Amino acid sequence: MKEQRFKNKNDIPWKVSVIVATLAFVLTAGLFQAQAIAAPVIQEVLYNPIGTDEVNGDEGGYYFTELYSHQTVDLTGWSLVGWDAVLGVIRENNIYYFEAGTVINGVMVIGGIRVPEADYIDAAVDWYNIHTAVQLRDFSNNIVDALQWGVGEYLGGEGTPTYEVTPGWSLSRDEFGTDTNDNNNDFTAFSTPTPGIGPMAVAPEPVSSTLFFVGAATLGFRRFRKKMKDN
Ligand SMILES: [Ca+2]
Ligand SMILES: [Ca+2]
Ligand SMILES: [Ca+2]
User: Which of 34, 53, 81, 107 is the most exposed place for a label (fewest CB within 10 A)?
Assistant: First the structure.
C-alpha cells in the first residue's frame, strides 16, 4: 500500500532536489542576514575590573567598552547608555556622549586611563557590575545595539541576558562579530580581554555551513526513504 505513495519512482529525486534547494536557499539567506552588520555593534565590554572600579572617583579603573563597525559611521549625537534592569531606568552617571564629528570605521575603545588601547577616556563607561545593560543609541535615541548582564524586571539588552562575569573578565562577541540579537547566545566571558582587537573585517563564507545543512537534509531524506522501504 505505502509503495503507492510514490506512483512514479522517478518523481522522488525531483522532489528531493526541490526540497534541498529550497532548504539551502532559506538557510543561506538566514546566514547572510545574521552576518550583515548594518550599524556599529558593541563587540566587547569589561565592566568589573579586579579591585576598585574607579580610582578616586575618576577614570582610573581598568574598564572599557569596545565597538566595531564594518562601515564608516558618523557618531555625532550618538551615546552609550547604562540601563538599570531592576529599576528600568537610565543611570544618569552612566551616559557617554560621542563628541561631534566622531567617526567609527573598525574598532573603537572607550575606557579608563589604565586601558592603553582606549581611543577615548571616560568614567561614564564604568558600568554597574550587576543587572545592567549598555545600549548604543543613535542621534534619534534609537537603540542600535545592546548588551545586558544579569536579570531584572526590565530588559535593556537583546534576547536573553548573559550571566554576570568574574571581576577582570570581559564579555565579547566572537571573532566574526556575530550578532543574532540574543546576548546570551552572542557573548562569551573571556579571562583575557582584548581591547582594540575587533573581529575580522571579512565575514566568513557561509558555503561550508550551507553544505553541512544540505548534507544533513539529504541524509535525513535517505533515512526517511529507508524507513519507507523497511515498512
Ligand atoms: Ca563597574
Ligand atoms: Ca544586536
Ligand atoms: Ca576585543
Answer: 34
Instruction: Compute the distance from residue 204 Cα to the ligand 3 centre, in Å.
Output: 18
Calculate how far, in angstroms, residue 108's C-alpha sits from the geometric centre of ligand 3.
9
Q: Are 140 and 92 a contacting pair, CB within 8 Å?
A: no
From residue 60, give the alpha-carbon distance in Å to each of 47, 52, 84, 109.
Answer: 13, 9, 23, 15
Backbone angles phi, psi at 78, to 5 degrees: -85, 165
Give the pLDDT band (50/70/90) at residue 200. confident
Using one digit for the tens of pLDDT, what is the confidence trace for 36-71? Answer: 446 899 999 999 998 776 654 555 689 999 999 999
For residue 48, the ligand closest to its alpha carbon is: 1
Contact yes or no for 32/209 (Cβ under 8 A): no
Ligand with an atom nearest the CA of residue 129: 1
Q: How far is the CA of 92 from the centre of ligand 2 (A)?
A: 23
Distance of CA 63 from the midpoint of ligand 1 (Å): 7
